[in-house]
Design brief:
Layout (H helix, E strand, L loop, with lengths): L9 E5 L3 E5 L4 E5 L4 E2 L2 E2 L7 H15 L8 E3 L13 H4 L3 E4 L3 E2 L2 E8 L2 H10 L1 E2 L2 E2 L9 E7 L2 E2 L12 H8 L1 H24 L2 E13 L2 E5 L8 E5 L15 H8 L14 H19 L3
Antiparallel strand pairs: 1-2, 2-3, 3-7, 4-5, 6-7, 8-14, 9-12, 9-13, 9-14, 10-11, 14-15, 14-16
Helix pairs in contact: 1-7, 4-5
């Protein structure tokens, strides 16, 4: 099992879910089985989660390559450098070697349906991230058009904060904000098109971008159950929460607890961990055909 320690390899960042190692001219990104909910890393891992997220991201890298390049160099452990050979089996399926990039200081959220924090905001004042929406929307309704709603990037223990497009401009500049908005919407629309063929609704999702050799590229995960809300098309019905193929099931369980959503996270029963794992595996199989 991967335990955030590769002897002889320099760990440079331990994120909520991913560990980053410095290989000199590139980085090794390892997706762990850790789960972050409400921006808190849970104490119990989700079996197989890291491999699922990696394989789904690799699938989407191929699907959206015509829209924007990404940071992937290789995910084939047999092509990894010698320093990683002793760790080949723990890295297989859950890791990739990627280009070094300077991440933008915003996360790029696209919402096609109103749910989660967007629904809470709409109930409060009829807006999402400063965008006024039509009156009378129900929870999980499809929006008239997908919305680009950026957020700040949170460190472990901190919360992402939804911001307006104008605030994103203040952080990354007008030209870059417009560019990532247009690319984010294009990726989302492509994802929606592909997912519809597989009977899946992509309610919302989050992207990250970075600069590499003067070019904007897609980094981190893409359209995974960690970064998106996936609903079965067959049971979709506006007016309340939906069934899902993502970590919403896990979030819903946490909402039943007397927990204030600050670290440390609560211990999770084995059956909840197993069911969450099944949800992730279901998403992998639906998108990629891989069991």
């Amino acid at each position: 099992m991967y335990t955030s320690n590769l002897e002889g390899v320099k760990l440079v960042q331990k994120g909520k879910v991913r560990d980053i190692y410095d290989l000199g001219d590139s980085l090794l990104m390892v997706t762990t089985d850790r789960l972050s909910a409400f921006d808190v890393v849970m104490p119990d891992p989700i079996p197989g989660k890291g491999r699922v997220l990696t394989q789904i991201s690799l699938y989407w890298y191929d699907q959206v390559r015509s829209i924007i390049d990404n940071h992937l160099i290789t995910a084939d452990v047999d092509e990894y450098p010698d320093i990683l050979k002793p760790h080949a089996e723990v890295l297989r399926g859950r890791s990739m070697i990627v280009k070094k990039a300077e991440p933008l200081k915003i996360e790029c959220v696209v919402r096609g349906y109103i749910s989660g924090s967007g629904w809470k905001s709409y109930q409060k004042d009829g807006t999402v991230c400063g965008i006024v929406l039509p009156a009378g929307l129900k929870e999980s309704d499809r929006l008239p058009e997908p919305l680009f709603t950026p957020s700040t990037k949170a460190d472990i223990g901190d919360h992402d904060i939804n911001i307006s497009f104008e605030e994103a401009v203040d952080i990354v500049g007008a030209e870059m904000a417009e560019k990532v908005r247009d690319i984010s919407l294009a990726i989302y629309n492509k994802g929606v098109e592909v997912a519809a063929e597989k009977g899946i609704v992509i309610a919302d999702t989050k992207f990250e971008f970075g600069m590499c050799d003067g070019e904007l590229i897609l980094i981190d995960e893409v359209l995974t159950p960690d970064s998106s809300r996936f609903w079965p098309q067959s049971s979709y019905k506006p007016g309340g929460p939906q069934e899902s193929f993502d970590k919403q099931y896990f979030r819903d369980y946490l909402e039943t607890l007397q927990w204030d959503k600050t670290p440390p996270g609560p211990s999770i029963p084995a059956e909840i961990l197993a069911r969450t794992s099944e949800k992730y595996l279901e998403a992998l199989e639906l998108f990629t055909g891989k069991a």
